[in-house]
Design brief:
Elements (H helix, E strand, L loop, with lengths): L1 E5 L6 H15 L5 E4 L9 H5 L13 H6 L8 E3 L7 H4 L6 E4 L2 E3 L3 E6 L2 E6 L22 H4 L5 H8 L7 E4 L12 H7 L4 H6 L5 H10 L3 E4 L6 E6 L5 E6 L10 E5 L13 H10 L9 E2 L9 H15 L32 H10 L4 H6 L13 E2 L37 E5 L11 E4 L1 H13 L10 E5 L6 E4 L16
Parallel strand pairs: 1-2, 2-3, 3-5, 7-8, 8-9, 9-11
Antiparallel strand pairs: 1-12, 4-5, 6-7, 10-11, 13-14, 15-16, 15-17, 16-18
Length: about 500
Amino acid sequence: MKVAIEGCCHGELDNIYAAIEHAEKVEGIKVDLLICCGDFQAVRNREDLETMACPPKYRDMRTFYKYYSGEKVAYVPTIFIGGNHEAASHLWELPFGGWVAPNIFYLGFAGVVNFGGIRIGGLSGIYNQRHYRLGHFEHPPFDNESMRTFYHIREFEVYQLSQIKQPIDIFLSHDWPANIAHHGNLEQLLRWKQHLRSEILDGSLGSPPGEHLLHTLKPDYWFSAHLHVKYPALVKHNDEHATKFLALDKCLPHREFLQLVDFPDTDAPKNIMFDEEWLTVLRLTTNVRSNTRNMCSLPESMQVTKEDILATKNAIESNMGSMQWPQNFKMTCEVFDPAKMEQSMTQKNEKNNQTEQLCTLLGIINPCEVHMLPENPTSAPVNPDEIAIESEDEQPKKNNPDEIDIDDGDKNDEVQEMPKKNPATVYISLDFCLAAANISSCILCKSSIDKLLALAFSSRRLFFARSRRFFLDTECPSATVWQSSRYSDISNFSKADII
């Protein structure tokens, strides 16, 4: 079986399919499956385009909308994960994965499926420590903040994937696992990408959660993109098993963006198939998923038994008739019409029948429906294990000394103006990570600084809430201003203002 692996798609579906068709003719082969490693850009209309996080000059409709409408059909079955340039309003409808168009399948925030006897897992998005332990609070209408935090991976999905025990053949991530560069020809990589030298040497390049999954799941193959360079590596695990890593470029002429990989032929159907172990994990973790900024207290370990997996499989087969993922794609919005001079459209919370059917099948909470509830504290289901980020009473977890704060390069991290100061209150702008002494801007008395530093060093948890305030009472009448060059939200305060 021939599988084509592609790096960053950037909406170039026509050219990618044309490249596959050309390879088939030249090599005399037939490609059975295409896998894309992110930045897919499933843009259906101008509304989707406005929720794609990138400078406006790079927002281009491209041609996915033709596949969405049925004007075109994918040349081969296609599976993809999300990257950091995606149509947030579209992928939001499919948190657990599903069809974005006929023959084109999205793995969701995280997912595992089977195709032709190959087990394929993936994690969408890129790592950003500031948002890693937040819940999935983002929903339409997206703003400059939420369209970016939407594609930052969360601890919750990493925890779910860590429960997988059965072997994985292929795993996908958009950004590279941390330290993967040291397992290949590093000298050659630095010749191609000299600007990565400092990040590689100080260990900040890549995703620490990705590295954790690499050594936990130990897949046969791991494919990534993001850095727009082809880079192979070989990771040897302690049990003598090895993972073949390959990063690929973006789809451009004379760039190495496509790789053909051979897998043994089996009798398994060449269709997208449910994975009973993964769906069991989804079912057993639904009660610890957070759909707000608050995080959930994840259990240290979770037991997924054979009986649990068998029960999931029986439920699917009895309701669906087989383990094949149903061909239940339906359009949920109007599609772009180039003949019309469309104006910007209002973002809407659209229900997707695929998510509804899967949640009903597994008996789990539909996070999209939770976001559609009125903004009333009594309207949404209450999770007793959810931890409010602002809470001072929760006991923080132990610090992980291996955590690295990696900025994904977002340029829209400005915070809102701070309110006027109450002398009895300490104001902390939480538009940064308050951990490992990474306090970027705040107004604090010295005793409170000492307390917060101690908390940062003893806590594994990120106290982060964009555009929110964390209030801490203090009896100290004097305060000191701390401010980094990056943040200027307290620049209007003088010493006289904060006595």
